Amino acid sequence: MAAQKSATPSPGAQAVAAGEWAGKSQAMFERMLQEVPDALRGIFREKLMQVLKQKAKGGPAAESHVTEIVHEMVPEPFKSNILKAFTTMGDIDMKVVEEIIKNNPGGQETVISILHAIQAKCGYLPQEALILVSQKKDIFLSNLYRLATSYTAFRIKPLKKYAVTVCNGTGCHVKAGGQILKELEKKVSGNGSQITLEKVRCLGCCDMSPAIMINGELYGGAQAQARIAEILHE
Ligand code: FES
After folding, report:
1. Which CATH number fits domain 162-232: 3.30.430.20, 3.40.50.150, 3.20.20.150, 3.40.30.10?
2. Does any ligand 1 atom lie closer than 6 A to the CB of residue 203?
3. Is ligand 1 within 6 A of the CB of residue 209?
4. What is the 3-state secondary structure (H, E, C) of 30-79?
């Protein structure tokens, strides 16, 4: 009898096992596990999942359940790291990310397309989205980060108010582009800058030099300089 009873998962266990995660709970759970060394992660995942199922008591795993586990079971300094990471996790709709992954069936060869699609939807690659891709496509999170940070097409932080791309090609550089870039770099290095700065070798409109792009709009010559001056003085 006892053996039969333990073989039947509780409704809570079924809920979590079936993937019912409320809000960012799944991403938070995975973030918590990131503090555990790779070799021990499987064991910890199983143990913590059991605790989570008990806390869920038949419902979906909630964000508060994961936070409770961190408070109750994780020692310092890992606890502080994890709680801090929770507060900076973006409010992205993970259902959108799940849908993107579902629409890209296959193995690790689909990862680049998935990352492009996530960035198109979210504007960047949020950590919780990378964690989910890492799980679903069975790829180390560290490899995904390497990928996301080595391609200029990807960004792992949300864009600020102004996404400024400055052409640093020779034609633009000698026609005030170099000066614009210098001033922007100085501004960006200060606190509270609202500028995400990127430099490229050519924007494909050399007759407009100095050429810049602000939030997807192209500016050239005196117009570019005037627009940058406005932004710098905000
Ligand atoms: S060199 Fe600047 S747009 Fe081509």
Report:
1. 3.40.30.10
2. yes
3. yes
4. HHHHCCCCHHHHHHHHHHHHHHHHHHHCCCCECHHHHHHHHHHHCCCCHH
Q: How far is the CA of 18 from the centre of ligand 1 (A)?
A: 53
Q: 159, 191 in Cβ contact below 8 A?
A: no
Tens digits of residue pLDDT in 184-228: 999 988 877 889 898 899 999 999 999 999 988 899 999 999 999
CA of 189 to the centre of ligand 1 (A): 25
In tens, the pLDDT along 60-110 reads: 899 899 999 999 999 888 888 888 878 767 667 777 888 999 999 988 899
- What span, in angstroms and rounded, lies between the C-alpha atoms of 50 and 40? 16
Best substitution site from 209, 212, 218, 219 to test ligand 1's pocket, by max atoms within 8 Å of Cβ?
A: 209
